[in-house]
Amino acid sequence: MQFFLDTANLDQILEVKELGLLDGVTTNPTLMSREGGDWRTQAARICEVVDGPVSLEVVGTTREEMIKEAKDLVSFGDNVVVKIPMIAEGLKALKDLTERGIKTNVTLVFSPAQALLAAKLGATYVSPFVGRLDALSQSGMEGVDQMRTIFDNYGYATKILVASVRHPLHVLETGLIGADVITLPHSTIMQLLHHPLTDKGLAAFLADWEAFQKEAK
Ligand code: E4P
């Protein structure tokens, strides 16, 4: 399973990169606006430090606007993946971008049927938003499971990129389903690392060792 970081924050990106866990980054207009400053400089820097795909999202809502933006976004680096919203105009743009060989990530996907449309049109990634569905008492991961089955039934190469992740259980479920990628907030990666029994166990090992060393003197 590939781990992407769901952020536009450079400190978070560099920290996870140092851990060796960074396979890519996803951004969106909200995450980008949180960083403030000049988004173009920020996007270019992200593309530079990440050795893997970086999703940058269009903000236009017509096919023409999205294609124009996509052409600009890919100039930030060879690793850019253009994020397109799951709307009719987005699908039109997706077809065009696929034909041009531009990598795409269809975002704001909330049903397996939407994912199927994106896969048919050659999306590189499809992003089901699991957390936002869970918040409405609908299982986000159930949809991801169905997407996996549909893509496998037809041999679609589109990668399932689990998004809107809220907690480590989403990571476990992604692995069990066999989705290709998960994009995680920095806080969830840190939660994955820690277990109280690990901390407790290590403290006991070190205390026992120290006592043993004192005895040996
Ligand atoms: C995915 O690429 C999105 O940026 C992200 O996962 C959205 O999640 P949210 O529901 O936390 O905004």
Q: Can you walk through the features of this model?
A:
With 217 residues, this protein is of the alpha/beta class. It has a single domain, classed as Aldolase class I (TIM Barrel, Alpha-Beta Barrel), CATH 3.20.20.70. 55% of the residues lie in helices and 17% in strands. It has eleven helices and eight strands. It has helices spanning 10-19, 29-35, 39-49, 63-73, 88-99, 112-120, 130-134, 140-154, 168-177, 186-193, 196-216, and strands at 2-6, 24-26, 54-57, 80-85, 104-109, 125-128, 159-162, 181-184. An eight-stranded parallel beta barrel has the order 1-2-3-4-5-6-7-8, surrounded by seven helices. Strand 4 (80-85), helix 5 and strand 5 (104-109) form a beta-alpha-beta unit. Helix 6 (112-120) packs parallel to helix 8 (140-154). The chain is globular and about 75 Å long. The relative contact order is 0.12. The mean pLDDT is 97. The structure holds erythose-4-phosphate. Erythose-4-phosphate (E4P) binds at residues 6, 26, 28, 107, 127, 129, 131-132, 163-164, 183. Erythose-4-phosphate (E4P) binds next to helix 7. It is found in: Cytoplasm. Belongs to the transaldolase family. Type 3B subfamily.
